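Below is how a single chain appears once it has passed through the pipeline. First comes the sequence as given, then the structure the pipeline wrote out for it. We keep one example in the README because the format questions we get most often are answered faster by looking than by reading.
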Amino acid sequence: MDIKRKSKWATVALSLLGLLLLAGWYWAAGIVPFLLQPDDPRNRAFWAWSGGDAATREALVTVKQEPCPGAPFILPSEGFVGLFYADPRAPYTPRNPHQGIDIFSPGAPGITPVYAAHDGYVTRESHWRSSLIIRIPNDPLQPGRQIWLYYTHMADQAGNSFIIDAIPPGTRDLYVEQGTFLGHTGDFNGESGRPIWVHLHFSMVKDDGRGNYLNELDFDNTIDPSPYLGMRLNYACTAVPVTCTADPTCPD
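Resulting structure:
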């Protein structure tokens, strides 16, 4: 009996060790780019936002209330675009890169406005406290396909929503025009115990071909927002701070 108990506890200990090693690998994969590339403008900007004063932060904020020339979308919120599309840095990894962009707010939770990036139809699932998704029936850059715009972290840490009352949980296909006020940025991170900075996570999600959005957590289900916003938002070629450009996509 004692031998069996020892064997059982040994198995548990090995399993826990394996989980710790895996977690350590994921952490290292995300933080190493910061450590190995301290002169990378993307990393310098991130650290400047993290510890900078008000003037330093203000210089990193992108404010764009009108579309960039030739681009169909407006930036859905002002702030510091600090994590980019396909970003491999923590909390993401090269194997699981960032699915959209993170726009960090200069103010406290519930202060910075969030807007509809394009005309479309809002859905907010009944269990969504900080999220909504906008259906775009006709992709302005690839006519004939439907796409979706996903917004999240629009609540405080306790899950109190900052989404406007006109979009309650259970909302389906509510039409909004580009620039419609949707709510405010927040720092809600679901049931995770990991705190986050106040920001808006914004991503473009593919349709499944039957009128439904695909799982945004799968990078392959998402679209590079760079040409839609007229800014270099892909980690591979982004500029800091983010601005309008005539050539928003990465060179081949």
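The domain at 38-229 is CATH 2.70.70.10 (Glucose Permease (Domain IIA)).

See the next section for the split statistics.
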